[in-house]
C-alpha cells in the first residue's frame, strides 16, 4: 500500500500552514534522524500556555521532539491559535483541542498506516489529555500536567501513558499531580525527576533519559 509522505526529508524541518478551525495553523514537521531505524509512528507534541509565552519552540517541546526523532519517530509540533503564525484568539483549552484535532486529521491523512502518539507539556498536556478520548492515540506522554489548575474531568488516556513530573516544579504542584493520578483508574507510568523545576532548567538531559526509557519498550509493538 502506498503511504503518502510528509513534505520533508530526513534531517530537514518543514514549516507548513494548515487550515484550522480559527484560521491558519503554523506546523513544523521533522522526520527521524537519517541514521536511525524508522518507526511507523507519528508523535504530535503540544506546547505550554499560550498566554505565558508558550510556543512550539519551547525548549521542553523541542527536547521531546528531538528525543523521539532519535528513536525513529516522526514528530509534528504546532502553534495553538493566537501563537506565532497561527490565527485566532486564546480559547482556554477548548479551541486548542479543536486545533489539535485538525492537526491530527492532517497527520492521519498524510500517514494513514502509522500509529499516532500524542505528547504535551504543561497546558499542552492538558489539551492532549482532554482530546485523547476522541482522538484515540496509541500512546500519550504528559510532561508536568497542570493538575489543580485546569479541569481534567472526563479524560480517557490510552493504556500506554507516561507522566513525567519535576519534583521542584514551581508552577504545577507536584503533590497535586501525584494525588490526582492516585484518583484515576487509568494505568500510567509516573517518572519523578528530583531537583527539577517546571521548565527543566539544567535538567533537559534528564528529561531526555526519562522519555527514552519510558517509551522505548513501546517501539515495534502496536498496542
Characterize the structure shown:
This protein is α/β, with parallel strands linked by helices. The protein is 28% helix and 23% strand. The protein has an eight-stranded mixed β-sheet with strand order 1-2-4-3-5-6-7-8, with helices on both faces. α1 links the parallel β3 and β4. α2 packs across α3. The longest helix has 17 residues. It is globular and about 40 Å long.
Cα gyration radius (Å): 16 Å
Quaternary state, please? single chain
Low-pLDDT parts are none
Strand count:
8
Mean pLDDT: 94
Query: What profile does the largest beta sheet have?
Result: 8 strands, mixed
Net shape: globular
Q: Give the topology string: H per helix, E per strand.
A: EEEHEHEHEEHEH
* Count of helix runs: 5
**How much of the polypeptide forms β-strand, as a percent range?**
15-25%
Side-by-side strand order of the widest sheet: 1-2-4-3-5-6-7-8
Q: Please estimate the helix content.
A: 25-40%
List keywords for this structure.
223 residues; alpha/beta; 8 strands; globular
Give a quick summary of the entry.
This protein is an alpha/beta fold.
Draw up the topology in text.
Blueprint: E1 13-20, E2 23-30, E3 41-46, H1 59-70, E4 74-78, H2 94-110, E5 115-121, H3 123-135, E6 139-143, E7 160-166, H4 174-182, E8 189-193, H5 204-215
Parallel strand pairs: 3-4, 3-5, 5-6, 6-7, 7-8
Antiparallel strand pairs: 1-2, 2-4
Amino acid at each position: 500500500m502506498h503511504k503518502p509522505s510528509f513534505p520533508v526529508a530526513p534531517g530537514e524541518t518543514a514549516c507548513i500552514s494548515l487550515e484550522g478551525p480559527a484560521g491558519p495553523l503554523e506546523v513544523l514537521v521533522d522526520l527521524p534522524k537519517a541514521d536511525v531505524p524508522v518507526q511507523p509512528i507519528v508523535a504530535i507534541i503540544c506546547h505550554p500556555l499560550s498566554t505565558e509565552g508558550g510556543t512550539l519552540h519551547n525548549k521542553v517541546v523541542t527536547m521531546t521532539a528531538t528525543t523521539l526523532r532519535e528513536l525513529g519517530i516522526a514528530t509534528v509540533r504546532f502553534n495553538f491559535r493566537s501563537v506565532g503564525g497561527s490565527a485566532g484568539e486564546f480559547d482556554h483549552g477548548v479551541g486548542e483541542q479543536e486545533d489539535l484535532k485538525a492537526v491530527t486529521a492532517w497527520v492521519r491523512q498524510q500517514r494513514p498506516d502509522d500509529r499516532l502518539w500524542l505528547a504535551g507539556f504543561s497546558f499542552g498536556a492538558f489539551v492532549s489529555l482532554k482530546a485523547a478520548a476522541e482522538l484515540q492515540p496509541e500512546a500519550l506522554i504528559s510532561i508536568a500536567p497542570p493538575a489543580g489548575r485546569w479541569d481534567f474531568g472526563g479524560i480517557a488516556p490510552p493504556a500506554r501513558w507516561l507522566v513525567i513530573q519535576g519534583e521542584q516544579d514551581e508552577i504545577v504542584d507536584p503533590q497535586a499531580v501525584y494525588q490526582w493520578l492516585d484518583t484515576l483508574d487509568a494505568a500510567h507510568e509516573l517518572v519523578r525527576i528530583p531537583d527539577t523545576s517546571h521548565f527543566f532548567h539544567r535538567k533537559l538531559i534528564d528529561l531526555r533519559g526519562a522519555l527514552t526509557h519510558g517509551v522505548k519498550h513501546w517501539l515495534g509493538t502496536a498496542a
